[in-house]
Write a structure and sequence with these properties.
Residues 20-87 form the HTH gntR-type domain. It comes from Amycolatopsis tucumanensis. Keywords: DNA-binding, Transcription, Transcription regulation. It holds the Pfam family FCD. The chain is mainly α. It contains ten helices and three strands; from the N terminus they run H-E-H-H-E-E-H-H-H-H-H-H-H. It has helices spanning 22-36, 47-54, 58-71, 89-110, 116-135, 138-155, 159-169, 183-189, 191-199, 203-227; strands at residues 44-45, 74-77, 81-84. Strand 2 (74-77) and strand 3 (81-84) form a beta hairpin. Helix 5 packs antiparallel against helix 8 (183-189).
């Protein structure tokens, strides 16, 4: 049996006051907990204990665990509860290979759809991101990076494909990336080749540049998780 999840002051901060989609918020919290090693492979997640720590009723926690069970992150064991499934290097690699494929396709489609003024705004946002990276403002890097990718994905005019990308992104919550060594630097420097291809209206170049960027970030995450001894 694992140690209590809260671990005193180490319990990650998040808000569970809004009851809308509460189970999804709890699921996101547990997903991130698995990534950061708060919930270790083989550990049982105790519904009542976690509900108390998060200040919610047991119902959304149960719903979240059922959702995570369908994703393969936890496994139900009769009379014992939900147990964390080991996270492997292949799991993370597969996740980012899928992300790279979808994000690359969205960028390729956006290359012929983005207006000049949208490209100008993207480059202005990138300049702010690079300054934030130099300033060590990783929260701002995270916000601006999200804005850039969202703009490209939206410009692709492929809403359902973008939703599929969102499903894969949910496995690594947005707020987690800032803790990965080298991530902010990758966001500051990898984007230049993407923007060059978009400005040239080069779908294949945009696809390759975006895919390479996502795979680079995925590799950084694998190394980060290895250092934290999270991967099995």
């Amino acid at each position: 049996m694992g140690a209590p999840h809260g671990r005193g002051s180490s319990l990650r901060r998040t808000s569970f006051e809004n009851k809308q989609q509460l189970s999804e918020k709890v699921a996101a919290y547990i997903r991130e907990g698995i990534m950061v090693g708060q919930f270790r492979a083989g550990e049982y997640i105790r519904t009542e204990r976690l509900a108390e720590e998060l200040g919610v009723s047991p119902t959304p926690v149960r719903e979240a665990l059922m959702l995570l069970g369908s994703e393969g992150s936890v496994r139900w064991e009769p009379r014992r509860g939900y147990r964390v499934v080991p996270l492997t290097t292949r799991d993370v690699g597969d996740l980012f290979r899928v992300q790279a494929f979808i994000a690359g396709e969205l960028a390729a489609r956006a290359a012929t759809e983005l207006r000049d003024e949208e490209l100008d705004l993207l480059e202005e946002t990138q300049a702010k991101l690079e300054q934030a990276e130099r300033d060590g403002d990783f929260d701002l890097v995270e916000t601006l990076n999200y804005r850039i990718h969202r703009t490209i994905n939206k410009a692709s005019d492929s809403a359902r494909l973008a939703v599929l990308l969102g499903v894969t992104v949910n496995y690594v919550p947005l707020g987690y990336y800032a803790s990965i060594e080298g991530w902010s630097s990758a966001s500051a420097h990898d984007h230049s080749s993407i923007f060059q291809a978009l400005r040239a209206r080069d779908p294949e170049g945009a696809r390759k540049a975006m895919s390479a960027h996502i795979e680079h970030v995925g590799g950084q995450l694998v190394e980060h998780l290895r250092r934290r001894e999270v991967l099995s």
